[in-house]
Amino acid sequence: MSGRRAARRVALQALYEIELVGHRQESALDWLCLEQGLDAPQTEFAQRTVAGVLRNRDRIAPIIRECAPAWPLEQMSPVDRAILEIAVFELLFDSGSPPKVAINEAVELAKTFGSDSSPRFVNGVLGTVVARYSRQGGDARADRVRSGKESSR
How far apart are CA 98 and CA 128, in angstroms? Predict the structure, then answer.
């Protein structure tokens, strides 16, 4: 498993644990990074991803709502929601991964941790996110959402 893939897996597990069990970010991440044997760069990537998702949740949630209007966040599987949060964070707030990589990695997480329909659902939502917000599409809207100057609607 690639370094970032392992770190994304830990980030997903940490977000799930933080949301459903109520554990603190640091304790959840520390234990998972140790248990999964992540090295320093992988640990840093997982920490940056979890912190970024938690810090930007109020900006990420409306984007997911807009791009998955038939699925209210409250009714969405916690696993699917966390996968989408990680991918939207990577796509719009953290420029470290190309869009195709972020989407492919999210789909792989959905195959491993989600339901049978999760991979297609995640792929569809993220395709919409890229079409509406991606810099590659020339849309400055993503920059405004990242800076907090515009909501997703």
Answer: 16
Query: Which distant-in-sequence residues (6+ apart) come within 8 Å of 153 by Cβ?
Result: 62, 66
Q: pLDDT digit string (tens) for 42-74?
A: 999 999 999 999 999 999 999 999 999 998 888
Q: Which amino acid does the sequence have at 1?
A: M
Segment 38-49, tens digit of pLDDT = 999 999 999 999
Cβ partners under 8 Å of residue 137, min gap 6: 130, 131
Per the CB < 8 A criterion, the answer to whether 80 and 123 are in contact is: no
Predicted TM-score (pTM) of this structure: 0.86
Q: Return the HEC string of 50-118.
A: HHHHHHHHHHHHHHHHHHCCCCCHHHCCHHHHHHHHHHHHHHHHCCCCCHHHHHHHHHHHHHHHCCCCH
**What pLDDT is recorded for position 141?**
47
Contact between 10 and 44 (Cβ < 8 Å): no
Pairwise CA distance, residues 34 & 51, whole Å: 18
